[in-house]
Design a protein that fits this description.
By secondary structure, this protein is an alpha/beta fold. 32% of the residues lie in helices and 21% in strands.
């Protein structure tokens, strides 16, 4: 009986192996997160105002705000940008250990991809809200709209409430929750100087909805309401100078110099996004009605 059992198991294993060999296909290759060349194009650090610098790439904003008490980093770009950002900090006389706070706009791989590496290198504390903290801890996994746009997970040190201030020396950066592009989207305001005169800076998160489901979204039921509230809030921010994670959205061109070739106000930025969202909703509703008619 025992021999029969062994032989039967071996026969079954052979049959299974033959079956796999005959019917299975090679599994697909993993696809990396690919972006346009400008997002990956290194540039020299560019001065925006007296203490605020752009140290990212031609197509992605990464801001370094310098103070006598240390520096604050806002956003981190793509995962492969960590060494470049650290090198650009050093060009500005900022050693990694002088970065005291890491902040961000939204927790997608093209804006926070390098933050885990920067945090390890600097020992800085990362501050964000509860919504973004979850996505950061998952390393971008299970994003509501895109699924898995993965990067190295990073832990949050300070959970922020809406309107809270992150202070370093005389610098005060106020957070504004502006959900829509992600549920945890953040915008930041602070006052710097230019030629000795105060400049109120607003670093406002993305307001686009690329390929998003806006109507009856089961993962984000209030997405449209969130966008509309964010538009109103952004329009009212203190905003002498607007910066955005994707510079061209606010009229900036990063090259030999940082130039705002098409100056844009916070109110205009929000209104333009509102118009685009309205058109996207109309198109999505029309597509749903057509599909329902065909069904």
């Amino acid at each position: 009986m025992r021999i029969t059992t062994v032989l039967s198991a071996a026969a079954l294993a052979l049959l299974a192996a033959n079956s796999v060999g005959e019917t299975s296909e090679v599994l697909p290759q993993l696809r990396a997160y690919e972006v346009s060349a400008s997002w990956r194009q290194p540039i020299e650090p560019l001065q925006i105002t007296d203490h605020t610098w752009q140290i990212g790439t031609a197509g992605l904003s990464v801001l370094l705000v310098k103070t006598e008490a240390g520096a604050v980093l806002i956003d981190g770009g793509m995962p492969q940008m960590a060494d470049m950002l650290l090198a650009n900090m050093r060009k500005l006389g900022v050693q990694p250990g002088e970065v005291k706070w890491i902040l961000h706009s939204h927790a997608h791989a093209d804006h926070v991809g390098s933050l885990a590496a920067i945090k390890r290198a600097s020992g800085a504390q990362l501050a964000t809200n509860a919504q973004s903290a979850v996505l950061l801890a998952r390393g971008g996994a299970d994003d509501i709209h895109f699924g898995d746009l993965l990067y190295a997970p990073v832990a949050t040190d300070r959970i922020l409430q809406d309107g809270e201030v992150v202070a370093l020396g005389d610098l005060q950066l106020q957070v504004h929750f502006t959900p829509g592009h992600t549920p945890g989207s953040l915008s930041w305001t602070w006052t710097d100087t230019r030629a000795g005169k105060p400049v109120r800076i607003a670093y406002v998160d993305s307001l686009s909805a690329p390929r998003y489901q806006l109507l009856d979204n089961p993962r984000y039921p209030n997405i449209v309401d969130d966008y509309r509230r964010s538009f109103e809030r952004i329009a009212g921010l203190p905003c002498d100078l607007l910066l955005t994670p994707h510079p061209r959205r606010s009229g900036w061109k990063y090259g030999p110099q940082a130039e705002q070739v098409n100056p844009t106000s916070c109110a205009a930025y929000a209104d333009n996004a509102r118009q685009k969202l309205d058109k996207q909703i109309v198109a999505e509703r029309a597509a749903k009605n057509e599909q329902s008619t065909r069904g």
